[in-house]
Amino acid sequence: MKFWKRLMCTARRKSPWLFHMNAGSCNGCDIEIIAALAPRFDAEQLGVLLQGSPRHADILVVTGPVTKKAVGAVKTVYDQVCGPKAVVAIGSCPATTNVFIDSRTLDGPLDKHLPVDVFVPGCPPRPDAIVAGVVKAAVLLAERGDTPVKADVETVVIGDPEACTSCCESKPADGAEVQP
Amino acid sequence: MNPVLSNLITALARFLIFPGLLFAVPAAWFFLWVERKAVALMQERVGPPFMQPFWDFVKLLGKSTPPRPGIAGFIMRAWPLIAVGSAAGAVGLLPVLPASGGFEGDLILLLALLELPSICIIAAGFSSRSIFGEIGSAREAALSVSYNIVFLLAIVSIAASQHTFRLEDLAALPSSPLRWLGVVAILICLPAKLHINPFSLPNAEQEIYSGPMTEYAGPELAMWELAHGLEWVAATGLVATLVAPHIALAWGTTLLAGGLFVALSIAVVLLLSVLAAATARLAIDSSVRFYWQCTLIFAVLAISSALFVRFRS
After folding, report:
1. Which residue of A has its CA nearest to B206?
2. Whether the bond into B95 is cis, omega within 30 of 0
3. Is residue A3 part of a domain?
């Protein structure tokens, strides 16, 4: 039983499958996600695969500042991902709504609706930061095991959080752990 | 010993040990890795690590599945298991080792078992009641009707020209030009049978989510992945059987026959992976037209010449 648990832990760390969800993004971060999977950065060498169906995914990768139209879709897709699961917010938009802050068409940021595990700030973030964020989420999945997601999850910020605050007012999360 | 009992034990050993589940499951993972790695190398990527399909399988086993109440949920869970069982049975029938037994007509059983996973996929897509699953199933059905005509005609022409429907005899007989024609026809059908590019349209990733597999998650999806890997082993093994063992028989040793079988299977996997990496997905009408207009004429030629050869002799 212990062996099986350790095997499962390793498997979760080594095989993160993504589902990419655009919640009103300008497509900048989406291009960078594709760049992370493309030959130069090649996330598949870490076992990362982009899946077509949310049912197959472990990690929900969200871009965009969560428009009012997208709220329902984001929640539905999050529920469709089978546990154990993690959420990675790509770019400054889902973290803080970025330059679109106070827009009347928005209902962001993302952590108002979903428990976000990893923030990857940047406008857009570099592909290597995205790969680092996804791998961090996979490690979180492996550590968390079968216990369900708690409401007050520890959030992780990949890269420089100041990059995120340079163009908007609020920080992604108070007391967030900063990964150099 | 009672001959029925000994036959049963042999059959079980072939299904469970070699070349059945115990050999075929690691081989399935290995072939899936070879395919992904070959595509990655063609695209100048590093590609997945060696153990990747195994880790994917274990991880999927540990995931939860959405609740599926009632008889519909039970049926939906049953399809991937039937697919795994039939694909493993197809691998178990392959005459890998010389003098491995078999019976008259096992070629027909092999064809039926090879066809079952594809029928399971069609049924699974419809029983999942997702529109993407239904579109994928409809495409799979249309594609299956197209390539199966060519596939079956090719195999029947090989069998008819060699006067036997027994796999072991077929493997042992000296080859004829007709057999090579049949092998080429089978190779043309394999990309459609294995759902790889350019005929990946039933489970067209991203385009219709994941086709028939859209609603499957966790252990059920793991079983589908395993069934797909076993299909790889069975289909490439069939080609290797038709090409190789009579060469190995001439050389004589059992070990060599097994090794040559595996090497040829890997060669076929590499060939198909290169094709998959080099091509893009065709639309359904182009795929169906390819099989009905371009390939069928050769299959008809093959079977008519096989029948001609047979009646002349």
Report:
1. A52
2. no
3. no
Residue A42 sits in which domain range? 15-179
Instruction: Please tell me the total count of domains within chain A.
Output: 1
- Identify the residue among A49, A56, A81, A143 best suited for mutation to test binding to B, counting B beta carbons within 10 A and taking the highest: A56
What is the dihedral sign for C-alpha B275, B278, B283, B289? Answer: negative
Cα-based angle B242, B81, B5 (whole degrees, multiple of 5): 65
A chain contacts of residue B210, beta-carbon cutoff 8 Å:
51-53, 55-56
**Predicted TM-score (pTM) of this structure:** 0.89
- For residue B269, the enclosing domain spans 3-312
* A132 is a domain residue: yes
- What does the pLDDT look like over A70-129, one tens digit per residue? 999 999 999 999 988 999 999 999 999 889 988 999 997 898 999 999 999 998 899 999
The CATH number linked to A169 is 3.40.50.12280
Interval A134-175: pLDDT, tens = 999 999 988 887 766 554 555 677 766 555 444 444 444 444
Q: Are strands A17-22 and A118-120 parallel, antiparallel or unpaired?
A: unpaired
Task: Please tell me the distance in Å from B197's CA to the nearest CA on chain A.
Answer: 16
In this prediction the ipTM stands at: 0.85
Query: What's the number of domains chain B is made of?
Result: 1
Q: Which residue type, as a one-letter code, is found at position B49? A: P
